[in-house]
Write a structure and sequence with these properties.
Layout (H helix, E strand, L loop, with lengths): L4 H6 L12 H8 L2 E4 L5 H11 L11 E8 L2 E10 L5 H7 L3 H7 L3 E9 L8 H21 L5 E6 L7 H5 L3 E5 L3 E5 L2 E4 L5 E6 L4 H5 L23 H12 L7 H7 L1
Parallel strand pairs: 4-5
Antiparallel strand pairs: 1-2, 2-3, 3-4, 5-9, 6-9, 7-8
Length: about 260
Amino acid sequence: MRDISAAFLFTSGMKQNIQIPDSREQQILDGLKIRLIRKDEQGCYEQLIDEQHYLKSAQLVGEQLRYVVEYDGEWLALLSWNAGSYHLADRDEWIGWSDGQRRIRLPFVANNSRFLILEGRGCPNLASRAMKLCLQRLGGDWNTAYGHGILVVESFVDPQLFRGTAYKASGWRLLGTTKGYARARREYYTEHNSPKQLYVRALRPDALRLLSAEQMPEPWADGELEVKLRCRAKATELHSIREHFESMEDYRNRSKFAAEI
């Protein structure tokens, strides 16, 4: 197999050449298989991400799945998915959901946080074929693991390093550029000053309609998060309320009550 690796598919510093797979490469593409990694393989998986992916870290946030793409038992590509970003202005506008809907329906969004073609394993169309195979089973695997499916997927591409060719070839849509923050925990972000291009894809024709509907139908409604009551008072208002109650006399103070009698 010719060594064209991930750089051929993604690197922005190179001209975008169109190559047609030869007979051997086409045989490989036709014989690709994708599966979830096993627990005993996770250490090897994370080591490869640490060594070969430009972001290095294999750490995932929230609900997560890891896949390996292989041919005849040989690992060719790795894909990691985790919980969707808590808030993305361009994505949220594209979906058309309200802030309240986003809070309870975020589980239906998954983020492709890592996509790696292993060194020396690349061939034309490998990345797009791997992504296609993964998206065909992602929703079902997520439902098995977490009790709900996936309606929308998202991913971030560093425009200084990559073209996003594999996402474009797989039907993903470029929405815009992020503000330069990375999700560290559920509702906590850290600034990294490296804006990324945001790509999205709906996994079914009615995905956006379902996510922005006043009420989701079954079985999707079962996957919604519980509505949490949110305090709408400002900090200054809460402070004045506290002062008001602290200034009140406690009628349960029996010694003072007896003295007054």
